Amino acid sequence: MELYDEFIFLQTQPQLYKYIKEDCPELYAKIKEKVAEGKWEPDGGMWVEADCNISSGEALVRQFLHGTRFMEKEFGKNVSICGCLTYSVTAGRCLRF
């Protein structure tokens, strides 16, 4: 992050932020600083980027629920739900929650 200060970084999986927070809190603190500076963009509403053609509707809802709650709590950000290349036919119904 320091080496490429002109870049804006992006990470879209809340599960990875949780791993970093637990395993490397000093790096997590730096990421949060960069978020505050506008140099890091936390995004993605799914807990992990899933294959939405295989996942059930309930699994998708859980992905969105856990992912968006984490991002709101940790970064105060209402994130987009986009996080995979394709959504199943059930996605429209699931996203109305």
Write a compact overview of the structure shown:
With 97 residues, the protein is mainly alpha-helical.
Could you characterize the architecture of this molecule?
- This protein is mainly alpha-helical and 97 residues long.
- It contains four helices and two strands.
- Strands 1-2 form a two-stranded parallel sheet.
- The longest helix is centred in the C-terminal third of the chain and has 19 residues, at 57-75.
- The radius of gyration is 14 Å and the shape is elongated.
- The chain starts with 8 loop residues before the first strand and ends with a helix.
- The model has no long low-confidence stretch (mean pLDDT 84).
Question: What is the terminal-to-terminal distance?
Answer: 36 Å
Strand fraction = 5-15%
Mean pLDDT across the residues is 84
The largest sheet is: 2 strands, parallel
| Count of strand segments | 2
- Gyration radius (Cα, Å) is 14 Å
By DSSP (H or I, 4+ residues per run), the number of helices equals 4
Helix content: 40-55%
Q: Biggest sheet, strands in spatial order? A: 1-2
Structural class: mainly alpha
The residue ranges in which pLDDT falls below 50 over 5 or more consecutive positions are none
Q: Would you list the SSEs in sequence order as H and E?
A: EHHEHH
Query: What is the general shape?
Result: elongated
Q: What would the keywords be for this entry?
A:
6% strand; mainly alpha; 2 strands; 97 residues
SSE layout and pairing:
Layout (H helix, E strand, L loop, with lengths): L8 E3 L2 H10 L1 H13 L2 E3 L14 H19 L15 H4 L3
Parallel strand pairs: 1-2
Helix pairs in contact: 1-2
